[in-house]
Design a protein that fits this description.
Blueprint lengths: L2 H8 L7 H10 L7 H18 L9 H10 L3 E2 L12 H7 L1 E2 L1 H14 L5 E3 L6 E3 L6 E2 L6 E2 L1 H12 L15 H18 L3 H14 L4 H13 L3 H14 L3 H13 L9
Parallel strand pairs: 1-2
Antiparallel strand pairs: 3-4, 5-6
Helix pairs in contact: 1-2, 2-8, 8-9, 9-10, 10-11, 11-12
Amino acid sequence: MNPRQACLACLEREPVALLEATLWLATEHDRSIDPAACLGQVHNLQREVSKRLPMLPLGELAQPLLRELNSQGFAQDEYHPLRPQAALMDKVLQRRRGQPLLLAIIALELAQRLSIPLEGVNFPGHFLLRVPGADHLLDPCGGRRLYPADCRELLARQYGPQMPLNAEHMRSATPRQMLQRLSRNLRQLHISNDNAMAALVDAERVMLLGPAQVNDYLSRANLYQQLECPQAERFDLEHALLLTDDPVQRLKLSERLAQLPSGKRSIH
């Protein structure tokens, strides 16, 4: 079983082995990673964290869990410009710095092992957590409580005041959605760091994990353009054209398609 197959197989387990899936995802980029050894680090972390949690009902331990992870050094990676290591689980476990989504996945893994109720929330721009039924969300980067006013402020910081908070932003995230979001994050980080081949690996995984969006096809088409694969680029541009409702974007896509060679060639 190759790393991609092992990653997807983790999603079929009961319960889903999400953190292990992220380790296999990282192994697609670095075959020297030993997922079993990384899971050993998580086991040691669980032991350290559990010793320091207060004696409270399980339903009240999510915030203390996040605070304890923060006291253990787990925090948002503030390096600018952000590098792919902020979204590769083996590096996050080693450095204790990463994107909010990676910190959330570590917290979800520990919560599952310790029977603490906790779920992911697919909030735009900054992944969040929630105790099921609670009236607030939790920031995986330290455990701060976020009420609706705080969520509006966070959204405004990410996208500007014109973007209203709505129910879609507060939906629980499935493991598959989290893995797809992580793949999109890595795709962008590899693009930003001028590694088109690594970005293509992530772009292809995005397509396997769930419904693809217009931007998913456009991102992969741009990578194929960089790699001089015009027929693969055409395939993605045509799919983006089918999905978009934006007339300006449709016009630009049509013009770009017209400029591509029509002859059939190998894409690799």
